[in-house]
Amino acid sequence: MLTKRLPSGERTLTILDRVDLSVEAGEFLAILGPSGSGKSTMLALMAGLDRPSDGRVLYDGREIQSLSEDDLAIWRRQNVGFVFQSFQLLANMTAIENAMLPLELQGAGDARARAAELLGAVGLQERAHHYPAQLSGGEQQRVAVARAFAGSPALLLADEPTGNLDGVTGRAVLDVIQQLRFERTTVILVTHDPAVAALADRRIHLRDGRIEREEWRTP
Q: What is the rounded CA–CA span in Å between residue 148 and residue 127?
């Protein structure tokens, strides 16, 4: 049972309240719920970017919250791709350099070609050598998506990955997510978009920090 509490003045705010969730390898899970229901906090805990107040986060039987910060960083680099709502691009790197970064950290020899392929998949082949300040919010989002996908992670965590995109570009991003599914990547995605959620194998609905209900995609 996973719980996350935060102090709020003289009160203690419960963000997640005894959440019990298992995700199978290769599964595509969508997390839905109103603002403030704990969706982004759940992703942060899964990525080891935050630590629970109570409970455990296990990845392949390994308790990740017991790892040191250095070991967590290595674990994320080897296993996790993350799409943040706030992009988190490096301002002094071009779009293609941002997308290449996970591959270079892994020592991949084809980093530039792979990054260029992914930027093309999200419609940014003509903007590859622009810096984040020269890109719109939607374009920065697409670079962030390409970077998250670059290393073909075993686990992809995405917080509203199509939230700032138009319909056509959003569809391109979802196509890339679908392709990762066929590569047996586990996808956990937070969204408010029913069309995005409909692609998932399973949907969980959070409310007030608890799982309100689960739904499975009809074959």
A: 18
